[in-house]
Structures are given as C-alpha cells and as structure tokens.
From TrEMBL:
Protein name per UniProt: Amidohydrolase family protein
TM region positions: none
InterPro entries reported in the protein's UniProt record: Amidohydro-rel, Metal-dep_hydrolase_composite, Metal_Hydrolase, Metallo-dep_Hydrolase
Domain Amidohydrolase-related positions: 363-424
Signal peptide: 1-34
This protein's UniProt keywords: Signal
Amino acid sequence: MASKQFKQKKEDITMNKKILALFLALAVSASAFGQANISPAKAQTKKVILLGGVVHTGNGQVINNGYVVFEKGKITGVGDATTVRFATNDGEMINVNGKHVYPGFIAPVNTLGLVEYESIKATLDFQEIGNLNPHIRSLVAYNTDSKVPATLRSNGVLMAQIRPSGGAISGSSSIVQLDAWNWEDAAVKTDDGMHVNWPTTPRFRGFARPGFSAESMAERTQAAILELNSFFAEAKAYNEGAKPAETNTRMAAMAKLFKGEQKLYISANTQKDIVAAVNFAKKFNITPIIIGGSEAYLITDFLKQNNVPVIVNQPHSLPSSVDDDVNMPYKNTAILYNAGVTVAVSINDFWQQRNLPFMAGTVATWGLDKEKALQTITLNTAKILGIDKTTGSLEVGKDATLFISTGDALDMKTNKVEKAFIQGRDINLDNLHKQLDKKFSDKYTIK
C-alpha cells in the first residue's frame, strides 16, 4: 500500500513539473512573440517649431491656426501663427496644417506596468498580502520594458499614475512618463498619494446566502471602518511623537500624508460612502480625492463645499443603481464639472488605458463641450495629481509633452497620432499591435 502511494506521489510530482514547464514555455513564447523593446528617445537637442494646425492648449483655449515652440524639453512659445514669422534656420520646422496639436493625455489610477500577463502570476505585481500596507510603493515595481505603454502612446496617452491595489490601505502611487529606461527615469512625481479602499456594504438584490445577511455584512463594514480609524490615529500619533528606537515601517510610511506632502485617494462610489470617506479624512485634517464616484452627482454641493476633487471611473459602464438613468455613467462627469467640482476621467485596468481619450469623447457628448472634456484627461487631471505646474496644458514654461494627431483625438475614428514628444523628446510610436497588424495585413493582402 505504501509503495502504491509513493508511486502515485512520484507521478503527481512529475505531472506538476510538466505543467510548470508548459506555463514557463508559454510565458517565454509570449515574450518572444512581442516586439523588441523600443529604446527611449534621446534628449531634445534643437528647437522644434510646430506651425499651423489646430492647437488645443488643454486649458479650454483653441487656436485654429497656431504654433507651438519648444526647446530643451520646455515650451517656449504658443500662439497665433498669423502674428509671427520664423526663419527657416531657426529650428526644426514641422508643418501641422490641417492637423491637431494636444497636450499629452494623463491616465490616472491604474496598474500600468505592474501587470503583463494576467494568466501568469509571476508577472502580477500590483497587490501585496495584508490589509494595511501604506509602506508599499508601486513605483519600484513599475516595469518600463512592458509592452503595454507603447500602445498607450500611440493614442496620445503619454503619462500615467500607477498605483497598488487591494486591502484597506493599498500603498503609494507615483506618476510616470511612458518612455524611460527604468523606473527612476520614468518618475515624474514620486509617491504622490496614499490609496485607501473605503469599506462598503454590498447591495443585496433578492436572497442573500446564509451567513451573508445585510446585517452581518454591515457589521463587517463598520468593523473595517473602525480599524481604519484606529490605524490612522495611531499613525498620526506615531509620526508626531518622539522618534522611537525601532522604526515601524507601516506607521512611518504615513508621515508624508500627515505633513501634507502626499495626497489621500479614497475609492468610494455610493453617496453614503463618499460622505463618510470625506468626513473621515477631515478628522485628520486631510482633503481627500474621491476615486470612482458613481453617485457623486447626487452630492455636488457637499463635494464643492469641501473642495473635494473626483476622478470618475469608467464612464462606459452600467449604472450603479437600478433606479439610475441608464446613461448616468456618461453624464456623471458633466454634472460634476458644471457644478464646479474639479473632475477627471479614468478607466479600469492596464490594457484599457489606451481607450482613455474615447472615455473623454463620450463625456463630450453628454453635457460637456469638447475642450472641457479634454481637460478631464489633461489639465484637470494634472491639477488633481499635483503636477499642473509642469504639465497638463500647452503653456510657456511647461514640459513639452504633447502630440500631433491628424484628426480629433477624442474620437476613435479620427484619432491618429503621427508624432509625439515627451519632455521634448521625439518618441517612437511603434508598438506590438501595429506590428501584428502589419504582419497579418502583409500575409493576407490580395496580390
């Protein structure tokens, strides 16, 4: 009997090894199937002049026949092309007549560069074990060799805020530009904010499973909120008191938040949860930023009075309540914007980030004009993230992070990015999807 069990165990180990080998082979083949990594562009060496075309400054202004000049990575001139003359030897002259110039789009709150293959655990680095992880830094896990960022650049998304997820306190996010050798080169703003997932009670429809009654789930939610309160109070006392002999890394990681050097991002959707989250933050003298906000349109006065920005998530989604207008996710952003709330637009996951411009395009058809919708992925996002002094719009003194499109960049039928610059560097717009398109177009072209 023992001999039979030993034989079976040996066969199981052999089978597990074969399965592991298969997964590793798939991972290697998937990597080999992707394009060779594209080297980041070199620093700008000569002045560039974009002349003619429609310049969308990102702050609401449109110059129908405009120019943009940048040198050493910074914008040195923006204006009406009919009022100036440039010498042909003044720099690299690029004719953009009939085209559109935009500030680079910014994708907030996502796991870009932290996930590569969702089916292969070794490539997932967006979540840590445990419930309270303020010491986790997403930036050090950011993979600049990922195949995904190049697909975003081709649609005008040139910057992103990468964040960890999971647990009540997920850790710190950082803002990166999408053309870099490593995470140190990529960093635009390091550890810009701490991310909290507000505990919420699921809405029950129909019959709940045994042990998961509305009452029991509400109790769990309340216990989770009390745990958050306790941790924040302890962390505040720890960082304001005398320096201890031994450092508590979790508590010490909260120091920047209490000093006002870091923002607090709270993921919450229902009206009740948003109010509770804001009041929670105010107890610690912090003004939070709400992520999600599917019912934020119901409390615009409250948000405005408390100066709380909102990053609306996934406009292309179903309403959060069965009583909501079916188009409410499309209209939410416009209602907040028109009420005076600072609002930006985001989208789920990492591959989906390339569709961010089209989320803003949807918003533009449900209550906002195109230039205001553009601000929800440019200047408004930069303001919320705290980087508006250097990016988010085409203004003198800001980084030359911008792109040229042959058509309206918020419309998927006309968004065609011809050229893009990050901090003045002329970046490569090739990507895996373009290579696959060419490969199979060549194969099936009728001769």
